[in-house]
Amino acid sequence: MDSFQAQHIIESLRLGIPPEGYVRQFTVGRTKEIEDLIKRLQVHNETAVLLMANYGSGKTHLLKYIREESLERNYAVSTVTIDSNSGVRFNRMDQIFGAVCRNIEIPQSPGQKGLRSFFNFLVGEINKKNDESIWQEISNNWKWDYSEVLNSPAIFIGIRAWATGNDKAADIVEDWFFQPWQYKAKLKKLYTQLIENLRPFFRDPRPDWKFYTDQVFTFDSNGYSQSWAALSDLNILALYSDLNGLIILFDEFEDVITNLKNVAHQEAAFWNLFHFYSGKKYFGKTFYAVTPAFVEKCKNILLNKGRWDFDFSLFDKLPTYEMSPLTTEHLYELAMRILETHGIAYNWEPDLEMKASQLLKIINAASLQTQDRARHIIKSVVKALDDLYQESP
Ligand SMILES: Nc1ncnc2c1ncn2[C@@H]1O[C@H](COP(=O)(O)OP(=O)(O)OP(=O)(O)O)[C@@H](O)[C@H]1O
Ligand SMILES: [Mg+2]
């Protein structure tokens, strides 16, 4: 780490969180849980996992840890924050698909979120046109009339249009996949821009009406079947281009209880969770950040609303990880890492000025704050170091 990087890290820690790409360096404790989670990344038939920790106890932090670890292990990753109030509802698979597309990242360009890097990367692979290539299978020998491999006709059309190199088509594909529900009244536009205008590039025998009657552009009919197929295709495309697949991280998953008001929608959201778990509609890995009371709360909601028939045992099948709390020793270790980084950032030796007892005092004082303790400690330690640095000769 050079002083420039260290300054960047300290700036982020001033707000209480380590910056993207450095989360693992500023993680303490939870070694057993983390080891276990990393094992899950190496196993193939793992699907959904619930990560449980109390408010402000490191759920988001752990998802960021998994994100970094997954990118390093050659997975595409998408981190989605569930928020019913701003249109990311877990019962709406079209919204989930859109959110996954908006947030997807690949190991080749971490931090660049959105479908663009992923599709450019795929098209780069496609254009190698190796005879043995699996893309031959996807594109039916580069004729692009149909695909044996892809499940979603929309993804097929999207990637095919992208592969033509037409910028305008790429912009439309991106916007369409980011918010498929906005295109329900713009089917003609999709047809014209992504098929009709690009016909010289491929052979597609279908007339325009066929695209409409087959609901090729529709993501929300038949139980969101195309949304599921499209999500699953993103995973397949990742696998076919030599990534290890797609991992989806769902933060603030408790939203399905707190913000989804309608019990039918809640029930649909729970079913979607179980579908992810069963791996039939989407066989990639997914992680969900929740508080320890999550499963109990879900059951209570269903019972209170008279849903006696619901198979409650489904909840108990979900693999869960409950995070052990961070001890004072862990927090001290974290403070020491911050101290070291501050020294590199501003080229001084804080360990000569700051005694261990002082550091402990800061940690203990900040620990009195029950809400968001770790974050408060990080901010307090950086502030104390900033003050000391100002005063140092
Ligand atoms: N294992 C850890 N090592 C170091 N710092 C951690 C660890 N876990 C959490 N933190 C830090 O603790 C603070 C709170 O963590 P985080 O925001 O992840 O909690 P949360 O459970 O997502 O909170 P919320 O319930 O508000 O969503 C952050 O500053 C985070 O960087
Ligand atoms: Mg959080």
Verbal overview:
The protein has 19 helices and six strands. It has 393 residues and is α/β, with parallel strands linked by helices. It has three domains: 97 residues, no CATH class; 156 residues, 3-Layer(aba) Sandwich (Rossmann fold), CATH 3.40.50; 99 residues, no CATH class. It has a six-stranded mixed β-sheet with strand order 3-2-4-5-1-6, with helices on both faces. Helix 4 packs parallel to helix 11. The chain is globular, with a radius of gyration of 24 Å. The two termini are 25 Å apart. The site of magnesium ion (MG) has 3 residues, from helix 3.
H-E string: HHEHEHEHHHHHHHEHHEHHEHHHH
> Sheet with the most strands?
6 strands, mixed
Tally of separate helices: 19
CATH fold node name of the largest domain: Rossmann fold
> Order of strands side by side in the largest beta sheet?
3-2-4-5-1-6
Oligomer: single chain
Total beta strand runs: 6
Through-space gap between termini: 25 Å
Uncertain residue segments: none
Integer tally of domains: 3
Hetero groups in this structure are: adenosine-5'-triphosphate, magnesium ion
Give the rounded overall mean pLDDT: 93
